[in-house]
Write a structure and sequence with these properties.
With 68 residues, this protein is mostly helical. The protein has three helices and no strands. It starts with a helix and ends with a helix.
């Protein structure tokens, strides 16, 4: 489940960064280091935030069970 969340967050992040990129330096360049500890920490934080939102939805438990 966490891998799915990571993939979804990574896809959304890539889309958002692509849309908002300017010619100046990319402030999120550090996320390019996909195996870096700073990147992992950021992803863990985003996954935790997303999971809280998802689990608050009444449909979550049923959908998770069906997925598993």
């Amino acid at each position: 489940m966490r891998r799915i969340l990571f993939a979804a967050l990574a896809a959304v992040g890539a889309i958002l960064m692509g849309v908002s990129m300017a010619e100046d330096a990319d402030p999120f360049q550090w996320l390019e280091e996909v195996e870096g500890e700073k990147s992992f920490a950021w992803v863990r934080t985003q996954n935790e935030r997303s999971l809280m939102v998802l689990q608050a939805d009444a449909r979550y438990a049923d959908l998770e069970q069906k997925a598993l």
